[in-house]
Amino acid sequence: MPIQRLSIIGVGLLGGSIGMAVKSVLSGCEVVGYGHRKETLERAVAVGAIDRGEGDLAKAVEGADLIILCTPVGLLANMLNGISGSVKGGAIVTDVGSTKASVVGDAGKILKGKAAFIGSHPMAGSEKRGVEFARADLFRNALCIMTPTAETDPSVLEQVEAFWRLIGMRTCRMSPEAHDRALAEVSHLPHALAAALVTMQSPEALELAGKGFLDTTRIAGGDGGLWRDIFQDNAPNVRAALARLRGLLDDFERLLDLAKGEELRQWLDAAAARRQALLQEKLREITPD
Length: 289
Hints:
Strand 2 (30-34), helix 2 (38-46) and strand 3 (52-54) form a beta-alpha-beta unit. The protein is an alpha/beta fold. The chain has 2 domains: 5-174, Rossmann fold (3-Layer(aba) Sandwich), CATH 3.40.50.720; 178-286, 6-phosphogluconate dehydrogenase C-terminal like domain (6-phosphogluconate dehydrogenase C-terminal fold, Orthogonal Bundle), CATH 1.10.3660.10. It has helices at 13-25, 38-46, 57-60, 76-83, 101-110, 154-166, 176-200, 203-206, 211-216, 224-233, 235-254, 261-286, and strands at 5-9, 30-34, 52-54, 66-69, 92-95, 116-117, 119-122, 143-147, 170-173. Helices cover 51% and strands 12% of the residues.
């Protein structure tokens, strides 16, 4: 897909990093960033994330070949409505949201007959926010989950996959519903647990917190508004994951009995072995042959 103009709606960490990555591999592509704060757009230009900023949403997508929505999940429907009357014929729209069923459903209705849409979820980021933390290599070797539906044009899917691979990502495909179920377990619930671990501590305990605690709770430093939208949008799947976790914690509590020491060791060893296998699998994924 030849991209002469890319529009990034929301130039924070992810949007800014996409802009930097694109500018490092596509010298002939103009990168336009949309935001409602003039200072943010000026900063994005200064750090090399975009070529120019635009505070008018309709103007920001004018003439764009590819439009990437990088706003919080709760704003995506508004952004889709805002661009629907201004996208050019043949334009492709995607997003970077952490939930997919709602945005894919909304886009199918709002953009029907106006632009092609395919949901994307690049599994890269940080608890930090703001374009000042953007970097061109943020997506290198990371996974981007594509969420096509039965209505998705295969050529559009292939073009968007090619875009993510161009900036260094690996891609896979799953339905929006399957994505939301899986992400509730591996992303959304872990964030809630990190926040709960920080919240439950007494002041006396926090004074003794070391690197292990900081590593475990790092993701609790994320933006509250962004994560509120994710949790509420994916609430049924988060509740299901939470129910499974409660069951495992109940099992753990029973194993604290002194008579169950061997079972507790086996429970912990099984978890350690599973994590080690996961680390080896991830290493194979990102290590070239």
